[in-house]
Write a structure and sequence with these properties.
The complex is a heterodimer of chains A (532) and B (157). With 532 residues, chain A is an alpha/beta fold. Chain A contains 22 helices and 18 strands. Chain A has a 7-stranded mixed β-sheet, with helices on both faces. With 157 residues, chain B is of the alpha/beta class. The chains are: A alpha/beta (532), B alpha/beta (157).
Chain lengths: 532, 157
């Protein structure tokens, strides 16, 4: 497990996530919300360890809404999520840009280029443009720390939410952080402002115009005073970079002139134009999509990007050297490591063994149990996003011929079920397939994949104190599913096999809760329970 | 103080303490006054798969990742992870393999990670007392004795 650093001195070796937490603490943030997701998870855990008020929400949309409410009330709030979490939270995000905020609202999106632990490598810088929220991109832990302060300053001045866009290497690398003097917290109090916060069309139309005016003002500030830095070097080569790509580029081309962009929306295009005009060759070094390159070229500034092959995966020093050398030959492939697997004795193993033996068609979901797709089980036929197992399973049941439809099972973990499985159940009750359907909730009592975080189904808060608890079987029955079974997959594997077979044979709806605590979490869960 | 950045890659399997070992190295270098960066990818690390972590220290470190083929030291905790990770080593780099410490001499086999740091520590410009502080700072007090013993064992070889 991750032993959190004790923040006692003014100079510390911190991960980017820990630095964001410390930054939030020192910037007077009152409330942290989020949903666990690699590589963002440690931010709220560290914030709580610092004495901050941090709470897991059922999903990112709710987390952003709670943080927005706190910011409407005048408090400083931070909300954390992995990149795909911002898809879930996109609905409030776009309209929060219109309403603006009273207290500072910092939205952390932790992207995962290279997909170390994600289902896609989407580049969330596009969200800043699409929604119209300013975006800061730190390149190490010191900048992560300072980014929160800067975001708070920008949010206060322009009453806008600010996107803090991190990536796996910034979140999970440790670098040295020097602490700064704390900023006083905002004092929450309610100020009624109906036209600013009630987005009926009559109020939203002027709000959109206010947003665009605000972004123009922020762009002007970014040109003049933004967190961008020009490092003098040879005029033969100029590099424009942001995030961790800046660090790689500095190392790959120590003699080059560099324009480092710390605030990448709205872009300081005049500053970029000036920089480009001083160098003979101007190359944009960025991970993921050609976000900077496209914007720079659209502004009529001549710049060179990377070959398409470098759009995939993370950058590193060697890849940046290749980009600069315009080297498009195949890259060396490092030897394959050992893939991860479901732990020996993991309760999910029993379930996947049964599903494999029954030749079930399995609509899967996001979590440790995604590993059920690998040998020896290979018992997963789809994996899209949080909660998709239920909808995708239902769709297959609707479309497949009856002899195949009755083999379809949706498999979803406990935390994922709370995150976005409940609306899937509503769909199942409302539009039941003719062959019925079977949902298995793999309830291991924790959000295991991201490192054992609590959720509403555990009945414990982020810091493991007892609170209200969502009981899945009660919810399913209350929603109208009659055939609900709770079973321990390790204590009674035969019973589980029988229940799954019988449920598949029925023409109605079944929900099976396979409940057994995660092996890695069991001792801690016992300790929390005994603490009362 | 070395004029150049020292590059260390620690490799093993999830659950072996790769990340803990790299935390200790980074902490020791930090306490010794160097600029330090440490990179790793965790998330799948507890599921028994391959795990590596990079530590770089020196007067000034830029990228947090050890460039390909530039590791001065490769510390490997699992025998079957030596070959898949050998490509990290620079031509003059040094491998510290799991058999650098006789496992049977360890009071607790789980201290192999710290024992191998003992072997690594002899080659690095960081005083022993700083290593000991770094080990204490990164482990729960009940684990101090067994790990300090393992460290001494690795360092003595």
């Amino acid at each position: 497990m991750y032993l959190l650093i004790v923040y006692t001195t003014d100079r510390m070796l911190l991960s980017g996530d820990e630095a964001v937490a410390l930054g939030a603490h020192d910037a007077g943030i009152l409330l942290g919300t989020g949903y666990p997701g690699t590589p963002s998870t440690e931010i709220l855990e560290s914030f709580a360890a610092l004495g901050g008020r941090a709470q897991w929400s059922p999903n990112e949309k709710v987390a952003l809404e709670v943080a927005a409410g706190a910011a409407y009330a005048g408090a400083g709030a931070i909300v954390t999520m992995k990149h795909v979490g911002l898809n879930v939270a996109a609905d409030p995000l776009f309209t929060l840009a219109y309403t603006g905020v009273t207290g500072p609202l910092v939205i952390v999106s932790a992207d995962d280029p290279g997909m170390a632990s994600s289902q896609n490598e989407q580049d969330n810088r596009h969200y800043a443009v699409a929604a119209g929220v300013p975006m800061i991109e730190p390149s190490d832990s010191q900048e992560s720390y300072e980014s929160v302060r800067l975001a708070v300053m920008i949010a206060r001045q322009w009453k806008t939410p600010v996107l803090l866009r991190m990536t796996t290497r910034v979140c999970h690398s440790k670098t040295i952080v020097s602490r700064m003097a704390p900023i006083a917290a905002d004092e929450p109090h309610f100020i009624r402002n109906i036209p600013a916060r009630v987005m009926i069309p009559a109020y939203a139309r002027p709000a959109h115009k206010r947003l665009r005016a605000k972004l123009s003002a922020i762009a002007a500030w970014n040109e003049a005073e933004g967190p961008n830095q020009c490092l003098d070097g040879s005029p033969a080569l100029g590099i424009i970079a942001s995030g961790v790509a800046f660090q790689h580029a500095r190392e790959a081309a120590p003699g080059a002139s560099v324009l480092k962009l710390g605030m990448t929306y709205p872009l300081p295009l005049d500053r970029i134009r000036d920089f480009a005009s001083t160098v003979e060759r101007c190359v944009v070094i960025e991970e993921g999509d050609p976000y900077l390159l496209d914007a720079i070229r659209a502004a009529g500034i001549a710049a060179e990007g990377k070959s398409e092959m470098y759009r995939f995966g993370e950058l590193n020093v060697a890849r940046v050297r290749r980009i600069l050398a315009r080297d498009c030959t195949p890259e060396p492939v490092p030897p394959a490591g050992k893939p991860p697997e479901l732990c020996k004795g993991c309760p999910h193993r029993q379930v996947f063994q049964i599903l494999r033996d029954l030749d079930a068609i399995v609509a899967g979901d996001i979590g440790c149990y995604s590993l059920g797709v690998l040998p020896p089980f290979q018992a997963m036929d789809s994996l899209v996003c949080m909660g998709a197992s239920i909808g995708v399973g239902l769709g297959m049941r609707h479309a497949l011929p009856p002899h195949e439809a009755k083999r379809v099972v949706s498999v979803i973990g406990d935390s994922t079920f709370v995150h976005s499985g409940l609306t899937g159940l509503a769909e199942m009750i409302y539009n039941p397939p003719p062959s019925g359907h079977v949902v298995i909730v793999l309830d291991n009592g924790t959000t295991a994949m991201t490192g054992m975080q609590e959720h509403p189904g555990t009945g414990r808060t982020l810091d493991h104190h007892h609170t209200g608890k969502l009981i899945f079987e009660d919810v399913a029955r209350a929603m109208g599913i009659r055939n609900v079974t709770v079973i321990d997959p390790c204590a009674d594997p035969q019973g589980l096999a029988r229940v799954v077979s019988e449920s598949l044979a029925r023409p109605d709806l079944s929900l099976i809760v396979a409940r057994r605590n995660c092996l890695l979490a069991a001792a801690d869960i016992r300790r929390y329970d005994n603490a009362g | 103080m070395p004029a150049e950045v020292v590059n260390i890659v620690i490799a093993g399997l999830g659950g072996q303490g790769v990340l803990k070992a790299s935390d200790i190295v980074a902490e020791a270098a930090f306490r010794a006054g160097f600029d330090v960066k440490k990179a790793e990818v965790h998330g799948m690390s507890q599921r028994g798969g391959s795990v590596t972590s990079d530590v770089r220290f020196g007067p000034r470190v830029l990228s947090p990742m050890v460039p390909a083929g530039a590791a001065d030291f490769l510390v490997v905790l699992a025998p079957d992870q030596v070959e898949p990770n050998r490509h990290h080593l620079s031509p003059s780099g040094r491998l510290i393999a799991p058999d650098a410490v006789e496992e049977s001499t360890l009071r607790n086999k789980r201290s192999l990670n710290v024992a191998l740091l003992g072997a690594l520590s002899k080659a690095l410009p960081i005083p022993e007392s700083v290593w000991i502080e770094a080990i204490r700072a990164n482990l729960a007090p009940k684990l101090h004795d067994v790990n300090l013993e393992a460290f001494a064992l690795g360092r003595a070889r």
